[in-house]
Design a protein that fits this description.
There is one protein chain. The longest helix has 27 residues. The strands form five sheets. Strands 5, 6, 7, 8 and 9 form a five-stranded mixed β-sheet that branches. The chain is α/β, with parallel strands linked by helices and about 475 residues long. Helix 1 crosses helix 13, helix 4 crosses helix 6 and helix 11 packs antiparallel against helix 12. Helix content is about 50%, strand content about 15%. The chain binds adenosine monophosphate and zinc ion. Adenosine monophosphate (AMP) binds next to helix 1 and strand 10.
Length: about 475
């Protein structure tokens, strides 16, 4: 298996520290608002990575942090006049609901920053003892980037050329503001009642130290994979490396994987630009989590993905075609009376091998899906010519189920999830049609539709599809 490693700017063979087991850390959401689908592009890429590793028989231990204290959470909780905890709780809950909607597999751990302040304080103490950190006049503890010889090794920033100011207190800063960054921020009035006691007085941690302290706690000093969007490379990940490697004297992470931006109208989708959709916005427009998942899967994770409503409409059509394909296969697997066709097994094996090889080559999902579409096209022709046996169809369905470990929206088992009462209505409707009672048939179709299902008439009877 190969991945593009941002640290070396190369596609590299992946080797986990422990055979068959992968430890990975994923920078999670800052829970100050609802996540937008730009954020979900990153979480979807991480889901693809996690599922691909599992597909290739690795066991995965994934940790995703929740940033529930930082400049933005404090600012907005004060605006809303509620405690920081009450404020972030609501967005944590919404985040988990959104993950479920997109069928993103849960990580093994979701540590929240506010539950790990002692671990952060311990790490800052070590950095002070080792001389990498210092207390400034403003009472804050800063990391001295010139003490860490490797500073810039991930992002390529040049200390000599770009250093513009001595230090910076904000958590997020631009690439041209290379500076000492805050590990511990001394309390000031703007922080209100948000503070923790520390050996340096009351205050709160900076954003970057959260991820260093929590990744070490759950994954150890050195682990396999660290992920995020490309906007995390600098300063966040650069600063994580500086903190962790200075404190522990060990390599922090073996593989750094970053996804490209989700774009809207030519710009990065972001809260600050206001060009964003939340999942709730898209649901209101009638789109399902499955359709959104499909759009987010469809382009290579390192490429920019231009998000449009038309893209979602295309996803709907594609999924409809796939559903038609699987429904036909199910029908054949139960009813076909034709003899087995070795050509079909051959095509199935080839498709699955190509699909796997594409994913193993830096998660090339567009290519993997290309092999799947080509396969569907060929099998559709064979099915139309009655050249697919019941056993053939069962083998294809098994294979699709396997691919769905990664794709997560083929919904092979879906028809079984259709409620019994809807199935009964569909049955009554086909009876009514048989008896030429079209008014009753139409009434039953309307009733089915108003319950959220569509009927598609096929030669082997009506197919029920969840809308
Ligand atoms: P934040 O809450 O801003 O820290 O972002 C959470 C995650 O979403 C990070 O991994 C970011 O890199 C990622 N992210 C934010 N905006 C986008 C975008 N437009 N496209 C892709 N990833 C994004
Ligand atoms: Zn992080």
């Amino acid at each position: 298996m190969k991945f593009y490693n941002t640290m070396t700017n190369q596609v590299e063979e992946f080797k986990s520290i422990k055979p068959g087991f992968v430890k990975m850390y994923t920078c999670g959401p800052t829970v100050y608002n609802y996540a937008h689908i730009g954020n979900f592009r990153a979480y979807m890429f991480e889901d693809l990575l996690r599922r691909t590793l599992q597909f290739c028989s690795y066991r995965v231990l994934q940790v995703m942090n929740l940033t529930d204290v930082d400049d933005k959470t404090i600012r907005d909780s004060q605006k809303a006049s509620v405690s920081l905890q009450e404020y972030t709780e609501k967005f944590k809950k919404a985040f988990f609901e959104d993950l479920e909607l997109l069928n993103i597999e849960p990580a093994e751990q979701y540590p929240a920053a506010t539950d790990h302040i002692p671990e952060m304080i311990d790490m800052i103490k070590i950095l002070l003892e080792k001389g990498y950190a210092y207390c400034a006049d403003d009472g804050c503890i800063y990391y001295s980037i010139e003490k860490f010889a490797d500073y810039g090794k991930l992002s390529g920033v040049d200390l000599q050329e770009q250093r513009s100011s001595v230090r910076i207190k904000n958590d997020e800063y631009a690439k041209d503001a290379v500076a000492d960054f805050a590990l511990w921020k001394a309390w000031d009035e703007d922080d209100g009642d948000v503070f923790w006691n520390s050996p340096w007085g009351k205050g709160r941690p900076g954003w970057h130290i959260e991820c260093s302290a929590m990744s070490m706690k759950y994954l150890g000093k050195t682990f396999d994979i660290h992920t995020g969007g490309v906007d995390n490379i600098f300063p966040h990940h650069e600063d994580e490396i500086a903190q962790s490697e200075a404190a522990n004297g060990k390599k922090f992470v073996n593989y750094w994987l970053h996804c490209g931006y989700l774009m809207a109208e030519g710009q990065k989708m972001s809260k600050s630009l206001g060009n964003f959709y939340t999942l709730a916005d898209l649901q209101k427009k009638g789109f399902s989590g499955r359709e959104i998942r499909w759009v987010l899967l469809g382009s290579h994770y390192r490429q920019q993905l231009n998000f449009t409503i038309d893209g979602l409409k295309t996803a709907r059509k594609t999924l409809f075609r796939i559903d038609g394909f699987t429904a036909k296969l199910k029908d054949i697997s139960e009813n076909a009376k034709v003899s087995e066709n070795t050509e079909v097994s051959k095509l199935t094996n080839e498709m699955q091998a190509e699909f796997t090889a594409s994913l193993e080559n830096d998660l090339n999902m567009p290519k993997a899906l290309g092999s799947l579409f080509e396969f569907i096209r060929k099998i559709n022709i064979l099915m139309n010519n009655k050249k697919v046996s019941a056993t053939n169809a069962q083998i294809i369905l098994k294979s699709l189920e396997k691919l769905d470990m990664v794709i997560g929206c083929l919904d092979i088992q879906k028809e079984e999830e259709i409620p019994e009462e809807i199935k009964q209505l569909a049955k009554q409707r086909s009876e009514a049609r048989k008896n030429k009672d079209y008014a009753e048939a139409d009434r039953l179709r309307d009733e089915i539709q108003s319950s959220g299902y569509e009927l598609e008439d096929t030669p082997s009877g009506a197919r029920i599809i969840a809308k």
